[in-house]
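WARN retry 2 of 3 for item q-0093 after timeout on previous attempt; input resubmitted unchanged.
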Amino acid sequence: GSAGLVVADGWRSDAIFFEDFEDADAVSARWVHSTADDKYSTKMQVDLIDQDVYGLNEHGFNMPHKARHYGVAAESVLENPSDGLVVQFEVRSREGMDCGGAYLKLIAGGQGREGKLEEFSNETPYSIMFGPDRCGTSAKTHFIIQLPDKDGELVEHHMLAPPPPHDKANKTDTQLYRAVVWGDGKVTVTSPQAERTVELMSEKLWAPPVQPPEEIPDPEDVKPEDWVDAAKIPDETATKPDDWDENAPAMIPDEDAVKPEGWLDDEKTEIPDPDAAKPDEWDDDEDGEWEAPVVPNPKCQEAPGCGEWVRPMKPNAEYKGKWSAPLIDNPAYKGEWKAKDIPNPKYVKVEKAELLPIRATGIEIWTMDSGVVFDNILIARDVKTADAAREELYEKKRAAERKRDQAEDEKEADQAAADFDKAVEEDEKKDAKEEL
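OK item q-0093 returned
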């Protein structure tokens, strides 16, 4: 964070919504915690972030406990996002990000969607959901839009193959996320790892596409019981050849192999350590008979090998495995069955993806990670506003983090040099003592 909601000149006055979490009283007044369900009883809190790195005033909105649901929202009105929108925010995963998210929901406004922010929940309609999410093998920077279908029911449309989120092990660096809805119908999503731009109306880059298909497979159609979809069948006229031996082993001893010259048959591969000595404090009565630890036999390292020589195995040329009849074309094959297409009852011609108006910015997350901190949430019309905010806020943090990293690297290097000098000094003392 770094100053209030909409203040002063410059990019802040151009912001539709900006929150830096520096004024705790203003945050409490502006952000409404959900009471829609008991699961949202744990509240996010304004916390000071690493004042030794960033200076005294750098606060963020923290999810302090893992295995909890969080729900909180603040009013932020934008009537027509499709004409141009940029949403940008910073996130820091203090304990890493193994299973949880750090995404925003831009809560949908408009007719029939005027509910109180206290009622915000996972069922609340949204215009856009954007931000990082990770659990197990799934890791992505979500960009999801909700649009009404022909009958007014909201449908989620997921951007396919969005950029990956930040490294899950990174606990020390501020991460910047940005999504831009351009006035020409494109969307650009930027994560710390990558950037991706797609057309909102692309049929292949959204699941499902914004434009519904004119026809769909008939959900009532069923495959006939006598439908044959096996293209190949075993040849029932085939018989196993007389010389086919199913019992022949896959590997056999290599009879042409010879024991390498110099092989030490009578030497063991491991021997008791000749340099080991029974510790002075060892008590045979209490500790049992002392045995030296074993070490690799040095004679074996110089020889081709030690111990009993065993003839190596090789593939058996006679091996054929279990016999099975060869496959032939199935004369009854009808091809792969597919349900017949019917007119799509949800079809409507979509000229442009008109995103729902926005009435609030919300955080509605279930997470197994603690210490996920949001900061400097910005909603604006123009990318230039987001660029100016990034330069003033995010780049300042990153410069401080790089300075911290450099200091830590120098400290580690100094410690390594000191440890080396100490080891050399101890070796010199030991040598001097042995000479005496």
